[in-house]
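Form 7-S
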Amino acid sequence: MKFATKFLILLLLFSGAFAQHTLKVEKVITLTTPQQGFFFYPKLTPDGQKVLFTGPRFKGLYLLDLSNRQITDLNNEDGAGYEYQIGPEGKYVYYRTSTFKHYKKYYSLKRQSLTDRTVQVLEHQVRNLQPPEIRQGVLIYLKEARPVQKALMPVLKKSPAVQARAVFVGDKNMIVAENGSEKILAPLGEGRYIWPRLSPDGTKLVFTLAGDATYVCDLDGNILSKIGYANAPTWSPDGQWIAYMVDHDNGDYFTDSEIFISGADGKKKIQVTDTPDIIEMYPDWGASLDRLVFASNRGQIFMATLKSE
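Output:
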């Protein structure tokens, strides 16, 4: 009886938090061509005027200006495109690079200006360094398995809207870091947890359990909804929706993939792309609900324009 009551309360709270409008896909446009290069894992800057992306095998970072479609090479560093983060002011990109020294792999954490391309090293050659997260103007990362926080914009720390916490992949679990401490989460027991993402308000978490499905849970590990087969999930800026890819492979390479959007409660589903000849993957929302970017496996960048109704 206690469990049923608790579940009902969670369900009611969750339903209230995700009282949804509807979304309509207006158009999908191609942002880059094969002649310009092969690019992957795009992200919009906070003002929605530029798109960052990386090259094959996460090598280097590039910046596309949407006003003139000009591409600027930011750097050519190994690993720079893996889980990079754009600062909340839109002036810097934060990324991790890798190098080998005496047959061992070391990571460095760097900050690069999007205007003059100058680079600052924040952490130098660390053996165990997770890619960073940025939450409420705070840079958070795991260094030698311990959480580190660095304020990027102190004025944002006064806002109570989002707690300075971040989530990382752990060993058969997930790690929620907050205020220098960490909390282990394994909502479905030990397993391979991938693509964990905190909701914009920092109170919920979307994750994929490999071999099972994608779920939404609270920070106590209570499952709130099941999205289903939904890879590389990412939150909308208002926390109402989750974009993802539905991909398939034959064991050697991807055979198809389309971009979808689901209500965070797992109910309403919207298909963004329907192109059998293009394999679209890894969507990412910007700071505005009306733009969603993603790439194809052939290295082209796309942007979907969405309308809220």
